[in-house]
Amino acid sequence: MAKVTPWDVEGKIDYDRLIREFGVQKITDPILAQLKKLSGENNFMLDRKIFFAHRDLEFALKEHEKGNLFLYTGCGPSGSIHLGHAMVWKFTKWLQDVLKVDLWFQFTDDEKFLFKKDKSFKEIQELMYDNMLDVIALGFNPKKTHFLIDTKHASIMYPEAIKVAKRLTASSIKSCFGLGDSDNVGMFFYTAMQAVPAFLPSIIKKKKMACLIPHAIDQDPHFRLTRDILPKLGFFKPASIQCSFLPPLTGVEGKMSSSGEAFIALTDTPEQVKKKINKYAFSGGQPTIEEHRKKGGNPDVDIAFQYLRFLFEPDDKKLAKIKKDYKSGKLLTGELKQILIEKINAFLTQHQKKRLEAKKKIDQFIFKPTGHF
Amino acid sequence: MAKVTPWDVEGKIDYDRLIREFGVQKITDPILAQLKKLSGENNFMLDRKIFFAHRDLEFALKEHEKGNLFLYTGCGPSGSIHLGHAMVWKFTKWLQDVLKVDLWFQFTDDEKFLFKKDKSFKEIQELMYDNMLDVIALGFNPKKTHFLIDTKHASIMYPEAIKVAKRLTASSIKSCFGLGDSDNVGMFFYTAMQAVPAFLPSIIKKKKMACLIPHAIDQDPHFRLTRDILPKLGFFKPASIQCSFLPPLTGVEGKMSSSGEAFIALTDTPEQVKKKINKYAFSGGQPTIEEHRKKGGNPDVDIAFQYLRFLFEPDDKKLAKIKKDYKSGKLLTGELKQILIEKINAFLTQHQKKRLEAKKKIDQFIFKPTGHF
Hints:
Two copies of one chain form a homodimer. Chain A is α/β, with parallel strands linked by helices and 373 residues long. Chain A has helices at residues 15-22, 29-39, 44-47, 57-65, 83-99, 109-115, 121-137, 154-165, 170-177, 185-195, 200-205, 220-229, 270-280, 289-295, 303-312, 316-328, 333-358, 362-365, and strands at residues 3-5, 8-10, 25-26, 51-55, 69-75, 103-107, 145-149, 210-216, 239-243. In chain A, strand 1 and strand 2 form a beta hairpin. In chain A, helix 6 (109-115) packs across helix 7, helix 10 packs across helix 12 and helix 13 packs antiparallel against helix 17.
């Protein structure tokens, strides 16, 4: 059976079951139509049901019409930024561009420090500033994007977090996240900090605003607790738009993670990408060329095909042709991998160029509160 | 049996038993002599064993000789400042004057908000700024006294608190403070914030300094945990100098608290003081004047006498005479109370005058970190 928590995703995921268990909603055609009206053309991640579930998305879009919406997403700085992060953030950027709203981007350095036994505070800080370069390179609008760093912005975040914490018992944290008495007290407290960006903009703007959080579905438990508590503090429940997991290179189970080698980092060189895809990317093809030509491959389990579907081939017609050719045996595994390698390297070459420029932009992105010492 | 926790002190306290149970040391004559060498004349609270216990006080004094010591005390803003607070802080001021060291004064607004179900964040903030006036009026040196406010200074305190929290399990908090799973996660986390002023000055001064904490013995559990953890973070264990409890007006059991009416607030008027002492102060005298003249009173349980001993009659000879006269029946309860009322009102008149001046001094006392936004 699959395991899905904010810190662990393992096994074959049954998304319909997750929808039932988590109590989220499927994104329906009327919602897709509403988004299309705003965007002109929907992001392929919506059409392909990669972003497939939500909470209160209709409500968020209604508030958006009144100019009352902001976006919130985040990054836990614990390693290299990989394609799994890029997927959520590229979609978030699309949403920001379409909705023309502020995005609050939280860096949960406290979380990663508290949950990773082997990482020092200094290491997490270094990773965080490095991760920021990737976020910035993805092209967010600096005028509408505000970085919140849990530790650095604690003077505005901690006073709000304790208001959440006062309504959050140790037992609800235990049952929601499976923590126990041998876990550290920072892990117990952390969810209160994660809740803050869902209502801080309402305090700053001095009006009750709706919050929409694009995230992978494993983060839902955090926001389930947040949704229980925020109305008691006088704020709206945050809405969310949730995606499935970009799988690791090794196969369609679980999610990409920066432990081990089975991921593509946004800092990988063209050679690394080529090597990793050729070495690790699970193939849905047949053992021999002859057999492949005869029986064809299985795109549903083929990682190269899946990455094209998730991220690198936005054109539905082109994707359909690749699928057909692969299934028929016309397209070989090596050829399919080559298509993906070229797509990834084209993206990373551009990305890494922007990444070099990003260092001098960090300061523009970091939120500057007023009236605090 | 007496109950002594950081949030509850009830019953008749056996201080020798507390010393054994808490594992603290008695303040010995050689330590008193060492302090006398520094001060010229020891504070009567030391000679009278009101400050009676310590942890690592010799070590702290040794570090002081090397210019390596600071003081740390605090205030949990939950109600009026009363004589119980004044006792600890007057002694702290004496120590600051004698040792000529910096004092870090923590305002634990987070603690009081998290632990007091019925208090709003705003109420706690108002109480805190009001409490600051009393602290300032007690005469601390503004150049050497730094107010740290847990919420307002969270940008420098929270990043340090999570380093403590990472080494503090939920189970150690439960066993130390008797918290349970139905308590809120802020209560679990809070001890990590309380630990920070014990090492923050070492970070600010960029050298490993010793910390001495004057406090009432009920706060010892907080610092016991702090002492376990700080060496693992590269700091000294904080030393402490601990006092017994100023009793409530109603009798020598428990400690003065600002709930109910059985306390003297530093903002009480002369009339209120007179009324409270006459109405509530438990008397060690006899039911009738005739009987009192014959049998005499018991100063050990007489609150008016005890307050003179704890705070208001520093002159040992005068105190001894009062004791003798009260025991012999020469001094009546009403007369003894009158002595105390006059002493308290003389102190409060002066205090309240300084309190009016204090408002414009708050800013001088609040610590101003650099390099944070």
